[in-house]
Amino acid sequence: METPICPVCGCSLVRLGIPKKKAVQHNYAGKQYWFCCKGCLELFIINPEACLAETAGLTVCPVCLTEKPVDATVTMDFNGKTVGFCRCPHCRDVFNKDPHYFIARLAWQTNYAGVFGENMGCCSK
């Protein structure tokens, strides 16, 4: 699933609670990239290929929003798309209770306030 990950620090912008309208944007090689801050954009401009190589292959668990290399995830098919989860089985259980919410949140389509601003996630019972 597509979700915004800062190509410099590898953080999920959703996890940080950075809405699309406040994220730093930059177009490179015909593709739009999103950054958590201007500092990360400045570092990206210095060596974009190194940044992209370092963060390539990261995915975000839709429930706990942890960033993981794709090969360190457990996947599930949801409506014909592969969703990667951290290895915590609780995240998959939580996801199955309201998958549409978690997919929308992952795609920046909710008003999620970030892990520090909202009590939502796999470990908050």
Structure description:
The chain is an alpha+beta fold. It is 30% helix and 21% strand. It has five helices and six strands. The strands form three sheets. Strands 1-2 form a two-stranded antiparallel sheet. It has a two-stranded antiparallel sheet with strand order 3-4. It has a two-stranded antiparallel ribbon with strand order 5-6. β3 (58-60) and β4 (67-69) form a beta hairpin. The longest helix is centred in the middle third of the chain and has 9 residues, at 38-46. It is globular and about 40 Å long. It starts with 12 loop residues before the first helix and ends in a 19-residue tail after the last helix. Residues 119-125 have low confidence and may be disordered.
- Mean pLDDT over the full residue set: 90
Taken as a percent bin, the fraction of beta residues is 15-25%
The order of strands across the largest sheet is: 1-2
Structural class: alpha+beta
Span between N and C termini? 26 Å
Written as H for each helix and E for each strand, in order along the chain, the element string is HEEHHEEEEHH
Main sheet attributes: strand count, strand direction, barrel closure:
2 strands, antiparallel
Question: Would you spell out the secondary-structure blueprint of this structure?
Answer:
Elements: H1 13-16, E1 24-28, E2 31-35, H2 38-46, H3 48-55, E3 58-60, E4 67-69, E5 74-78, E6 81-85, H4 89-97, H5 99-106
Antiparallel strand pairs: 1-2, 3-4, 5-6
